[in-house]
Design a protein that fits this description.
Chains A, B: It holds the Pfam family DUF1890. The structure is a homodimer of 152-residue chains. Chain A is built from six helices and six strands; from the N terminus they run βαβαβαβαβαβα. In chain A, strand 2, helix 2 and strand 3 form a beta-alpha-beta unit. In chain A, helix 1 runs parallel beside helix 6 and helix 4 packs parallel to helix 5.
């Protein structure tokens, strides 16, 4: 079974937790075993969002995960990037893992979105989904589905 | 079976969708049949947040729901209030339904929180959970659990 690591930084956007659940569900269907590495606030939101644990099976603190991370430990890295800190985490995890990587970059402010996208572009060769979004998760969802279709 | 109506306005807060799923799950355990009335953006977030429909069974557009709403149509009204518009919806639904009602008021700005709480307090006799929260859903969750315990 392939292994995917989802990376969640601080959940400023109302779309982050729902999209993390959606991505977990989609990747499970593609036979990935999923681990979600996240900050404490993002982790609490996941717990509340899936109280019966249907979607989120395996969670780990993002810093603990980083401290033991090894090259090729996961087959896929999917980073949620809506803040500078999350972009830095993605770049760091990308260079340690050296595996197939996707950055899902979403922000409501177009200038911030551009900055975040530039940071990821200049520092990694991962696939990038970059989309102006806040409330409405559909623009992120549609582009995420497209990039997943390319994975297969 | 008792019937509960959950009311979701525009999802500014990252805690809203996760708490709506949590509340649905908790109220189901208390034998409520749940309908979620929401704005289009809130509805899309719910879909993405529960792609397999484990938690959210019955959704309706908030305005369609309002147009056919009748006194005592639901046994419980639970309103998520983190914007002025959501407070107005709660007050309106409260007066039409005339049923047991809870307002879950959460905001990161203490002044806005106070204003929202005042609006609900002055215009309804519903139970109120009012809490400063944004990222971290736990303060809302803990108080919601307490008020649910009082329901039984």
């Amino acid at each position: 079974m392939k292994k995917a690591l989802l990376l969640l930084g601080c959940p400023e956007s109302p779309s982050q937790t729902p999209m993390a659940i959606y991505a977990s569900s989609k990747l499970s269907q593609l036979d990935y075993e999923i681990t979600i590495a996240s900050t404490p606030a993002a982790s609490k939101l996941l717990e509340v969002s899936d109280p019966n644990g249907y979607y989120v099976k395996d969670k780990i603190d993002i810093d603990s995960c980083l401290s033991t991370l090894e090259e090729k430990q996961y087959d896929l890295l999917l980073g949620f990037v809506s803040k500078d800190a999350a972009a830095s985490y993605f770049v760091t995890f990308y260079h340690i893992l050296q595996t197939e990587s996707i950055a899902l970059i979403f922000e409501k402010d177009p200038d911030v979105l551009e900055d975040l996208t530039k940071t990821v572009e200049e520092n990694t060769e991962g696939k990038i989904v970059s989309v102006k979004a806040f409330h409405n998760p559909n623009p992120i969802k549609v582009r995420f589905d497209k990039i997943l279709a390319e994975l297969k």
